[in-house]
Amino acid sequence: MKNLELFKFDVRFQFRHGFYAAYALVSIVYISLLLLAPTSYIEPLSILIIFTDPSVLGFFFVGGLVLLEKDQAIFSTLFVSPIRIHQYLMSKVLSLTLLAIASSLIIFMVIHQHHINYLPFLIAVMLCSIFFTLLGIFLAVRVDSINMFLYTSPLITIIFYLPLLNFFKLSDSIWLYLLPTQAVLTLLEGTFNSVTVLDYFYGIAVFVPWISLVYLLTYRSFKHFLRTKCFS
């Protein structure tokens, strides 16, 4: 019940501060671009948009959320209650992942209708959003302003966009398959083609250690932030 209430609080908070409106506007822009694009470019552009949408928006939106909550001193009262850090992190991840999935689904359903494989699509969006949302929280609790967040975010995220080199045939590096974002691209490409059991296994095998690592780092950073900034 406590988890559900926290989840509802996050959804209301995001709606009240225009996150849903922003996602709706961005989705409309994406759909318009895809409708205007030449037929041969629609598939790769769709993959590129979905690849960047949950990651970029999830990363920056959660950064904005956490920094906004810091400015409003929400943490000082929120964590006096029985809410635990794990519950807070899961609520943020689930609420923003739900938003990312809804936005991505709307885009694909309008553009591609029923001519895609939705299972690898949903897995890719979900894993991508979870990973980058956690990464965004990790950075947000370590900086003091939105400007600092924007300045330092490329230093953390740039490495995870390197698999785009493989996607655009600018590289064929096997080392990029160690990054979770390469698994996202593999699954998204499988949305339009066939996906093997090995592709699913690869995606999960790569993401589990990466998500576990970033969750552990985020949890420790958040715990340190609460101890030194809120309750010191």
Automatic annotation (TrEMBL):
<feature type="transmembrane region" description="Helical">
    <location>
        <begin position="200"/>
        <end position="219"/>
    </location>
</feature>
<feature type="transmembrane region" description="Helical">
    <location>
        <begin position="20"/>
        <end position="41"/>
    </location>
</feature>
<keyword id="KW-0472">Membrane</keyword>
<dbReference type="InterPro" id="IPR056926">
    <property type="entry name" value="FLQE3_permease"/>
</dbReference>
<protein>
    <submittedName>
        <fullName>Fluoroquinolone transport system permease protein</fullName>
    </submittedName>
</protein>
<feature type="transmembrane region" description="Helical">
    <location>
        <begin position="148"/>
        <end position="168"/>
    </location>
</feature>
<dbReference type="Pfam" id="PF24686">
    <property type="entry name" value="FLQE3_permease"/>
</dbReference>
<feature type="transmembrane region" description="Helical">
    <location>
        <begin position="47"/>
        <end position="68"/>
    </location>
</feature>
<keyword id="KW-1133">Transmembrane helix</keyword>
<feature type="transmembrane region" description="Helical">
    <location>
        <begin position="89"/>
        <end position="112"/>
    </location>
</feature>
<keyword id="KW-0812">Transmembrane</keyword>
<feature type="transmembrane region" description="Helical">
    <location>
        <begin position="118"/>
        <end position="141"/>
    </location>
</feature>
